[in-house]
Amino acid sequence: MGIGKSTLADVQLNHSDSFYYAGEKVTGIISFHNHHRKLTLNNVSFGFIGEVGYTGQKTRHSRDSMGNIQEETRTGQQQFSFINIHIQFTHSKDNEDKMILEHGHNSWPFEFSLPQNLPPSSGSITGSYPYIKYYLFINTDRTWFKSIKAQTFPLIIFPNVNIFNINEDRQSTAVYNRNDLYVKACLSPQSILPGEKISLDIDIQNNKQLKIKEIEAKLIQQREIDRNHHAEVIFKVDLPFSQDFKETKFHETFDLDMPSGHLPPTYDYTASCSDLSIQTSIFYEIKLQVKVHDWPNEINLIIPIIVGTESTAEQCQSRKSSYARKSIS
Fold first, then answer.
1. Are the beta carbons of 213 and 293 closer than 8 angstroms?
2. Domains along the sequence of the chain with CATH
3. Over pLDDT 70: what percentage of the chain?
4. What pLDDT shows up at residue 179?
5. Closest Cα partner for 288 from 275, 278, 303?
6. CA-CA distance, 194 to 197, in Å (whole number)?
7. For residues 79 and 55, what is the distance between their CA atoms, to the nearest angstrom?
8. Interatomic CA distance for residues 329 and 325, integer angstroms
């Protein structure tokens, strides 16, 4: 979406992937390519927006013909800006919101600092609900055309979540113990960075020699905005497990590879605008599904895991065990 058919706007950032951490300085070049001999733009504004989108209720007040206040509550897709930063990049001598473009290429540098505490970008950039998204925007209107044109440039922003202070030796555990079947799953460490490995220790006591068909592990991202909930499977894998296992005991550790790249960290945040506050949360869990022959439902074990963005010390402690270990990609 451009400023006009014959005037194009562009923003070049110092990060080519448009990814930033909260608190970072964003610098770049804003440019206009003008095909006219000379063009005047009025009410030029350039800024940074943080926006929350969710499905919820909104109450509107109005007055009827008699002057009585009417209250109407509607449920639907809502969105509001919780961060709005005006960015200065050029000034005109007579009016700082007025800009004259010469024919050809016009460009100006800009910079601004992101707030220290921001929730991570989440959801689709196209705006599927619920979501948290960030973008730069340019709004202008052309004096001779009297129409406002807008252009947006999406950014991906994560907060800094340091997992160094979380005890890496501590395990997260889930247990199932009924119907003569005992399943215990331990996850270590309980906090991790993208691209690292997690160890999943599984202990099974199967006194009645029930036939276990399959064990599946999933990493699930849970995203909550207001009362909206969205679960997304980041990865799933069938653990190498003997099909139709009927032994009385099983004990093994599996190494699971976390995906690399930008993975929104575990984070809680309250987004506010005027008198409206929305609670947002992103958290993760390992879901272990154990499927038993002739059982109508599988066994589900949920183990929480914290995803961070950095650690001040590498988590390099070797994990030793007296039983077999398998690496799962």
1. yes
2. 7-158 (2.60.40.640), 172-328 (2.60.40.640)
3. 80
4. 81
5. 303
6. 9
7. 8
8. 13
